[in-house]
Every structure is written in C-alpha cells, then in structure tokens.
Automatic annotation (TrEMBL):
Protein name in the entry: Glycosyltransferase
NCBIfam families: HpnB (TIGR03469)
Organism: Actinomadura spongiicola
InterPro entries found in the cross-reference section: Glyco_trans_2-like, Glyco_trans_2_hopen-assoc_HpnB, Nucleotide-diphossugar_trans
Domain Glycosyltransferase 2-like intervals: 47-217
Superkingdom of this protein's organism: Bacteria
Family matches, as Pfam families: Glycos_transf_2
GO molecular function annotations of the record: transferase activity
TM helices/strands, residue ranges: 281-298, 310-335, 347-364
C-alpha cells in the first residue's frame, strides 16, 4: 500500500499541474475573436488535397464554394492520384463555377509525404494570394467561416489561424475515441500556449489552417516540411519558428464529415502517426507508456485498492484511497468540458482511464507497424523513411 500511495501522490501532483498550470488545456476556449469586417477582403485561395474523396466531397465542397467572402476567394482542389473519380466529382459539384480550379498532382518526388506534396501542388497553382487556406477534403464550413478566419488574422495580426474541427461522433466507438483524441491533442499542444507570443508550444490543426503566403515562403515554404507525416504540427512549428504569430482554437464552425464507423478505422487513424509523434524513439515510447500508466492507470487502481483496504482494515490504505480519488476526480473534471463540446454526458468522464489504455495500445501498435515497414500507412501509401 505504501508504494501505491506514493504513486498515487505522484499522479495527484501531475494532475494538479495539468489542471492549474498547463495552459488551461482542458478549456475549449472562446473561439475566434469578434472583429470588424475589413473594408476589402484580401485574396484567399483554399488548397484542398484530395485522394479518393469522391464519397465525402458532396457533403463538404459545396460549403466551401458557397462561402460569401468580401474579397476574391478561390478553391484549388488537388487530385492526388485518385482512383474513384474525385476530380470529376469536384467539377460536377462546382457546376462550371470559376471559383473552383482542379489540378492533378504531378508524380511525388522522393522524400515528400503524400499530403504535403499535394499541398505544394496546390500552392503552385494558387498564384500569389495574401492568404492560403489549407483544408482537408472531409471538412465542412459553416457560412461566413472564411470571413471570420481572415477577420481574426487581420484584427489580431496573426500569420497562422487554425481551427480544430469538430469530429464526427455518431457511432459508439466514435463517441469513445474522438473526444479523447482531441483532449490528448490539447494536452500535448495547449491551444492558449500555441496562441501566446513567446511560448515555445507550436501546432496547428490540419483540417483548417489559414496562413499568410509571404510568411510561409519566408519560413522556408512547404519544402521545409516536405517529409512531415504530421503536417499540421510541422506547419505550426515552421511558422512560429520563423517569427510568425499563430492562433489555434477548437471550432464548431469547422466540422469533419469523415466517418470512422469501426474501432479499426479509429485505431488506424491514431496508430499511423503516434510513433512519428514520438520521433520514432523506443525510449520515448517506453516513457509515454509509463506516464500513461502513472497518470491514468494509477488513480483508479489506487482508489479501488485503497477503499478495499479501508473496508477490511488494512494499514496505510487511506493514502492511496485519498490521493487516487483526488487525482481521478481532477482527471474526470478536466475531461468534462471536451465531452460537453461533443454533447456527450459527463458521466463518461470517469471512464477516461480505459480510453487511455486503448491509446497506449494504439501507440505501441504504431511502433510495431513502423518496424514492420508499414509506418504511416494511409490511403495506400506509407510515410517516407526518416533521414
């Protein structure tokens, strides 16, 4: 009981820090600030890399084409060697409107990740707008979202404004995995720290990234992150290290329509990049699993063991019971705002340790896939080998 009590105290200290001193990662945030409309909107080109996205485009592309933006706004959709008629579907949805320009990506050079190459092809076709909006093919936009993004960038002098999309939570497994996915992302990259000038934390959310073209070019362009599998975080770091000012929020106006109906689909989504996030390091992998065990596994284990010990009169059972319950309570409390964002019951919050176990397994499996030569597999391609 003494060892378990010490571990529970360590977990409690960790959760106190996360709750009080980690950039309020648990709070979804206020969203984009209110600001007056610019007298004339600067040119914006949305770049949409798309590979085999014909099924989802009817739900998403029209929401982008129908944005009423007070300036010149165009969409460049990059067909990245699709085999399902993605380009034809996009052209049909546009109905000949000049707003959409479909380009076919050239053959991908060695060392480039597939999505980053498609993004670069879109930049090449975009011309010289003031802003580039990198967005995924599965993302739907509420009316006026592009205007609000540009307005926030201009009013607050931001060079990168990114919105974390609200993901789909229709199936049981989506409701289990998705809110925790966003919660863990915010824990790694607290949105307020990303937004704070001078803070080292840098990231973005790949579904919606509005960036000043000149700032991106000055930082080295997409060539500087050509091999990045986690392109959004890499882009955020690139812009911030180049002196750019960033903003990251959780949004209800930007919504992903991509379905993940089965656990295997969600598992692949996480496992394809988890080991890359750990820089493909066995040491970081082992450390991550141990931290997950300490922070998420110890509190409920100490609570249950301590309460059982108190019930049968075991000495020293009060410490693990008390520290474990406090840590578990703080954990659940920090998870509740994310559940509410997804309109899910806060009663799910105490089960977060079980979800963390799944994520630990996904992370280990990500390493297994890497060493099996299947690292980063996505849409029929694997990630380029690290230098």
């Amino acid at each position: 009981m003494v060892v378990l009590g010490v571990l529970a105290l360590a977990a409690l200290a960790g959760w106190l820090y996360l709750a009080l001193g980690h950039g309020r990662f648990w709070a979804p945030g206020p969203g984009l600030p209110d600001a007056p409309d610019p007298p004339a909107g600067p040119d914006v080109v949305a770049v949409v890399p798309a590979r085999d996205e014909a099924s989802v485009l009817p739900e998403t592309l029209p929401t982008l084409l129908e944005q009423h933006y007070p300036g010149r706004f165009r969409v460049v959709l990059v067909d990245d060697a699709s085999s399902d008629g993605t380009a034809e579907t996009a052209e049909r949805l546009a109905g000949g409107a000049p707003t959409l320009h479909v380009v076919r990506a050239r053959e991908r050079p060695g060392g480039w990740a597939g999505k980053v190459w498609a993004m670069a092809e879109g930049v090449r076709a975009a011309g010289e707008p003031e802003f580039l909006l990198f967005t995924d093919a599965d993302i739907a936009y509420a009316p006026g979202t592009v205007t609000r993004l540009v307005r926030a960038a201009l009013a607050d002098r931001r060079d990168l404004v990114s919105q974390m999309a609200t993901l789909r939570t229709r199936t049981g497994w989506e409701r289990v995995i998705v809110p925790a996915f966003v919660y863990f992302f915010a824990q790694l990259y607290p949105f307020r720290r990303v937004t704070r000038d001078g803070a080292r934390t840098a990231a973005a959310a790949g579904g919606c990234m509005l960036v000043r073209r000149e700032v991106l070019a000055r930082a080295g362009g997409l060539e500087a992150i050509s091999g990045a599998l986690i392109d959004d975080v890499a882009l955020g770091r690139l812009v911030k290290r180049g002196g750019g000012r960033c903003r990251l929020d959780l949004s209800r106006d930007v919504v992903s329509r991509r379905p993940y109906p089965h656990l295997s689909d969600l598992w692949t989504m996480v496992a394809r990049s988890a080991y890359v996030q750990l820089r493909r390091s066995p040491v970081l992998l082992a450390g991550t699993v141990l931290v997950l065990f300490l922070m998420y596994g110890v509190p409920p284990a100490a609570t249950l063991a301590g309460l059982t010990g108190l019930a049968v009169g075991v000495a020293d059972a009060a410490l693990p019971a008390t520290a474990g319950l406090l840590a578990w309570t703080i954990m659940a409390a920090t998870y509740t705002p994310m559940l509410r964002h997804y309109h899910l019951s806060p009663l799910r919050a105490p089960a977060l340790p079980l979800v963390a176990v799944l994520y630990a397994a996904m992370t280990v499996d990500s390493a297994r896939r890497h060493y099996a030569g299947k690292g980063g597999a996505w849409k029929g391609r694997t990630a380029p080998s690290p230098p």
